[in-house]
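Please go through this chain and its backbone structure tokens and walk me through the local backbone shapes. Keep your notes short.
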Amino acid sequence: MNIQDIVNTVSQKAGLDQATTEKVVGTIFSVLEHEAEGTSISAFFAQIPGADALAKEYDVMAAGAAAGSGGGFLSSLQGALGGVLGEKAGALINGVAALKASGLDMAQIQKAGSTLIQQAEAAAGPDLTNQVLDQVPSLKGHLGL
């Protein structure tokens, strides 16, 4: 199963268009890429061809990644928290902000996220997927897992 298969399934089950689904999947994978440590994330991405490229395309730590918020207080707060709490917290904060800036409500984000995790488990196996997710426990909460 490659990244396009996953995007297609998430799009269908969550009722989202392809472009929005790509952004959601890429954003979540980018958060995992920045927050998960060690070889588990590399092994995880190796099981899902195209996942690493999509994570990089929607890199939550790239300049202006959370620019959908239009700057102002929220983006300065994100920058301050990211600086104080380090890259890991910054990646999660930016990722959640990017998902909300995409116009989705929390129910849609959670439906897309839970479907994505089911598809990732099918592609990479439940043990490896859970090993990666366990390194980012606060993401699980945002995805309603």
In short: Residues 72-101 form the longest helix (30 residues). The helical segments are 3-14, 18-35, 39-46, 51-57, 72-101, 106-124, 126-134, 137-142.
